[in-house]
Amino acid sequence: MAAALGAAAMGSLAAHADTLKVGMSGGYFPFTFVKQDKLQGFEVDVLNAVGEITGDDVEFVTMSFSGLIGALEAGRIDTVANQITITDARKAKFAFTQPYVYDGAQVVKRRGNDEITGVESLKGHSVAVNLGSNYEALMKELPYADQIDIKTYESNIEQDTALGRVDAFVMDRVSASQVIQKTPLPLELAGTPFSRLENALPFRKDAEGEAKRDAVDAALTELKENGRLAEISNKWFGNDITTP
């Protein structure tokens, strides 16, 4: 009887199989990056695991980070898997899944730069952030933002900080720690995270988008409950960043 029910369930999934188009930059190690011509990372593994549950084919579409939200709004992709932080402004425009990564905004500096000790020390200095990212918004919301030279980048903020072209950059703590650990660049964390971040998958606020959101959200719940999400996190980060 159980086998029959399982076969029926698989048949139902196949009958409803769809293609889930997932946008990502492919340049945000270790969440999404290309190595030896292969797109990989935490986000790739999570979305593939989601597809195994929903029965959908997952198609990854890479483009510059600053173009991802526009592509979602235009319907060229169904969602964005690139550590999209839930904000009030984004909640007004998109239907989000539950959070699946908990993190914090982190200042990173060139090793030995004693003038940069944390977010408040950025006054009078230049700081790189990825164009259109949550970190660009966070920096501009600081009460002393007019005292900071905020520079937006499409890529290579780590290299320009290491070369001294800017005094620091800001990204999430998890990625920053991985960059420092995995690359030979002379970088180090400055201070402690200054803003808690909850990251999730955004979908369009229409019937089709919300239906896809509901299916992916149910799959995330299953991945949390069966330990698969924590397993993927440990593979890429050595610890579980998927719970508060």
From TrEMBL:
Record-annotated Solute-binding protein family 3/N-terminal domain positions: 19-240
InterPro entries xref list: Iontro_rcpt_C (IPR001320), Solute-binding_3/MltF_N (IPR001638)
Entry keyword set: Signal
Domain Ionotropic glutamate receptor C-terminal: 19-239
Keyword check for Signal: yes
SMART domains xref list: PBPb (SM00062), PBPe (SM00079)
Keyword Signal: yes
Secretion signal, residue range per the UniProt entry: 1-17
Source species, domain of life: Bacteria
PANTHER family associated with the record: AMINO-ACID-BINDING PROTEIN YXEM-RELATED, MEMBRANE-BOUND LYTIC MUREIN TRANSGLYCOSYLASE F
Family classification: Belongs to the bacterial solute-binding protein 3 family.
Name listed for the protein in its UniProt record: Amino acid ABC transporter substrate-binding protein
Biological source species: Cobetia marina
